[in-house]
Amino acid sequence: MEKICFGIDVGGTTVKMGMFSEEAKLLESWEIPTRKEDEGNHILEDICSEIEEKLVEKQINRSDLLGVGIGIPGPVTKDGTVLNCVNLGWGIFNVEEKLSQMLGGIKVKAGNDANVAALGENWQGGGQGFEDLVLITLGTGVGGGVVIGDKIITGSNGAAGEIGHMPVVYDADAEECGCGKRGCLETVGSATGIVREAKKLLASSDMDSSLRDIDGFTCKDIFDAAKEGDEAALIVVDKLTEYLGIAAAHIAAVTNPQVIVIGGGVSKAGRFLLDKIEEKFMEKAFKACQNAKFALATLGNDAGMYGAAALILC
Amino acid sequence: MEKICFGIDVGGTTVKMGMFSEEAKLLESWEIPTRKEDEGNHILEDICSEIEEKLVEKQINRSDLLGVGIGIPGPVTKDGTVLNCVNLGWGIFNVEEKLSQMLGGIKVKAGNDANVAALGENWQGGGQGFEDLVLITLGTGVGGGVVIGDKIITGSNGAAGEIGHMPVVYDADAEECGCGKRGCLETVGSATGIVREAKKLLASSDMDSSLRDIDGFTCKDIFDAAKEGDEAALIVVDKLTEYLGIAAAHIAAVTNPQVIVIGGGVSKAGRFLLDKIEEKFMEKAFKACQNAKFALATLGNDAGMYGAAALILC
Known about the structure:
The structure is a homodimer of 314-residue chains.
Chain A: E1 4-10, E2 14-21, E3 26-33, H1 37-40, H2 42-57, E4 65-72, E5 81-85, E6 90-94, H3 95-102, E7 108-112, H4 113-124, E8 133-138, E9 142-148, E10 151-152, H5 185-189, H6 191-203, H7 219-227, H8 231-255, E11 259-263, H9 271-284, E12 293-296, H10 303-313
Parallel strand pairs in A: 1-4, 4-7, 8-11, 11-12
Antiparallel strand pairs in A: 1-2, 2-3, 5-6, 8-9, 9-10
Helix pairs in contact in A: 4-10, 6-8, 7-8, 8-9
């Protein structure tokens, strides 16, 4: 009988479940809703039920289950302790020990979802083949993860790879971040931040721009306009990529990765975005750190599931 | 017979040699000049002679020599390859293999000198007891090293921990760094940079300052004046620590260390400097990364020698 493992990505709305072969192949994946009621007490119960059912359905012996990897949307320390995951209603407890106990002693490894996604991209995504990698995800927020020697860097408080909170904007009118600080990369690098910057630019100038014709334009509209040569959109993208280039240069000076993988919804702008970040990076980064390549994430929303499986299989 | 190892720190002027017991005690240390002539070809020869002589003098069997750790003032990759160490006149070669061969097969481990110094501070210095540490050295230049899980982070090109080249200054008149870029931390955080900033401030204002009475004032003079409440000196120290706080916040967002150790000549300003950096750090750093403590380096110029021994003993 082939041995298998589960890679699980717990999100605020859905839990993504993946069953992987020992040879690192995704055999099957599905989603269940994240039941956040009762302080998120049912989330692990639901995960266990799904695992048990799948084992029965596929007639897999428990001895052939190598383990369960799980990504959590909050800080997780090296020993698997979740430190207040507000998205799930969770307090402080060791999720590895608890889930393992609930599964009758099966090996469980946990990590922060963004860190685990970085491991996924390292394992089978845009950073495959590179052991030293940093993932920057540009989505509703900005997140990330650091992988060194094919292992996640967790940090002393489970807070390594918090790329979104690098203080890159110094301007007196730097925007306030959700974290309470001003000038975090997230304030200018997230989809929300990019749209806000575009609105600010259009409101403070009378530049012609195709964006003025789009009610409630999105981040995608901005990139589409920039690709068409829209001057205002290009200014916004230039500013965004300047900050991303600076952040990447800081990251490179600290860990000197082989590759910086850009993911998240904003990364759908593709090579156009990547080339501009790389150009700014080369202007800012120390010569000996300029060897870092830039790549697009390829696993999309599955990166966490893959990375969670990698916690067990790698 | 007690087993021993050597920890060696190769500098541009002198080579610091340390003999350590297996129990991590420095038994003896001495210096030899760094002979840079003939493309630095005599440096390893001289080191070998010193080791061989010391073994004879102390009647130590070769079988009791655990190994030799060596710090090099240039990039060193994970496999021990030196990538052009201009300070020594060296090209590209594997220093671990070469020195090991010259010593008849003794184990040799090499690292960049600043990274090795970080390991030294982690092992027996200001970061003792903390497995996740970053060292920032403020001297003629600004250097550093990253230690995670008691191991040096080398980086994909031997260039991790290049803290001095984090691009923190955005001003249009940001100074050019020795590396060719503008606005590196080194341009404002090195002793040279601090003095230059003070001179710029005094030249561009008519502020009263005790520094105006000191011909060719030094970095120490600036800190002494600041401690006495000199307004101009305080502005300089405030700006310096603002940039150091920002750099530390970036570092914390990437690797979330337990402790950030400040070393180098400038750190002789002591708690006065440390408290100001920490204050700025707390203003800039992401909440979950604010657990980082600040500590002064304690090993001084011996940090590299200690760290080199740690490459063998830890």
